[in-house]
């Protein structure tokens, strides 16, 4: 299968077009009843979502993986690709994920098959060095996406207009850098992000930031929260703070993190509004210290 050549419109402009068309038809007397229900996204993949599906250790898609040698790529240090084995669903969105400072992909590798099993192609990257700073990690995330869509053996499975980035710690800071540098991305998910730049007013990519209440490496008060508040509401954003969680919460299987990541990616990479129920009003319970969001408004 080849990737579509059309560019997917952003949600808000598409809504504006629909509203303008409806207003025109109403003025012309063509529409006399209530507006028709919004059509399902052509990018919906998998069954109707439930809490049980999102909290399971694997989603509805069987997956496979393959290693990527650092010798076969440029711009990043290789890694592992995880992808749905189904060939009957069309193409999938894709996400590149970076580990944190001094860490290897193996430190957060559980996220690869977890996210891929919900209908995404995932590349977990190794960085060029263990000490790369956020700006470098951001460039490496984008290089990994370019490799995925341009040269990888799974490129035919990917819709190159539906891409996202994520990362832990300095990889989370790199996620913000990548989203700022490439506004065509559909979603960004920084996990316990660290960055010396505190203002992201230029960011236009829908961004979910997940922080840990007890993080002493990248304290939420000086990292995650300022990052979140600086992103304009028009970009669509959410902030999830995990109760009592340290800086290293992404390094062990963490259901609230996985649940919200998948829901965010489904909503903004796949335009799948079935997942809005998990974003608005959002998660609650003893594992959640705080949740803020703009809620997609349509």
From TrEMBL:
Its EC number is 3.1.1.3. Residues 38-296 form the PET hydrolase/cutinase-like domain. InterPro entries: AB_hydrolase_fold, FrsA_esterase, PET_hydrolase/cutinase-like. Gene3D superfamilies: alpha/beta hydrolase. Residues 1-39 form the signal peptide. It comes from the Bacteria. It is an enzyme of class 3 (hydrolase). Keywords: Hydrolase, Signal. GO terms for molecular function: triacylglycerol lipase activity. Belongs to the AB hydrolase superfamily. This is Triacylglycerol lipase. It comes from Micromonospora lupini str. Lupac 08.
């Amino acid at each position: 299968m080849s990737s579509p050549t059309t560019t997917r419109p952003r949600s808000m402009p598409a809504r504006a077009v629909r509203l303008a068309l409806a207003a025109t038809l109403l003025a012309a007397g063509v529409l006399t009843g209530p507006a028709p229900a919004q059509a399902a996204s052509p990018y919906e993949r998998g069954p109707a979502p439930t809490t049980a599906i999102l909290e399971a250790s694997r989603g509805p898609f069987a997956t496979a993986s393959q290693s990527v040698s650092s010798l076969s790529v440029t711009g990043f240090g290789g890694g592992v690709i995880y992808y749905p084995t189904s060939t009957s669903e069309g193409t999938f969105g894709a996400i590149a994920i970076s580990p944190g400072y001094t860490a290897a992909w193996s430190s957060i590798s559980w996220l690869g098959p977890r996210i891929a099993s919900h209908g995404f192609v995932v590349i977990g990257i190794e960085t060029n060095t263990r000490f790369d700073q956020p700006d470098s990690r951001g460039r490496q995330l984008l290089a990994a996406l370019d490799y995925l869509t341009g040269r990888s053996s799974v490129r035919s499975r990917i819709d190159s207009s539906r891409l996202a980035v994520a990362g832990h710690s300095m990889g989370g800071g790199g996620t913000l850098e990548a989203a700022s540098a490439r506004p065509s991305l559909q979603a960004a998910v920084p996990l316990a992000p660290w960055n010396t730049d505190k203002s992201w007013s230029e960011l236009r990519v829908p961004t979910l930031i997940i922080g840990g209440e007890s993080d002493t490496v990248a304290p939420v008060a000086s990292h995650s929260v300022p990052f979140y508040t600086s992103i304009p509401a028009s970009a669509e954003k959410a902030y999830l703070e995990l109760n009592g969680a340290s800086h290293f919460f992404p390094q062990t299987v963490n259901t609230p993190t996985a649940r919200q990541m998948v829901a965010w990616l489904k909503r903004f990479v796949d335009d799948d509004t079935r997942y809005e129920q998990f974003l608005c009003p959002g998660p609650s319970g003893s594992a959640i210290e705080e949740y803020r969001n703009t809620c997609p408004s349509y």
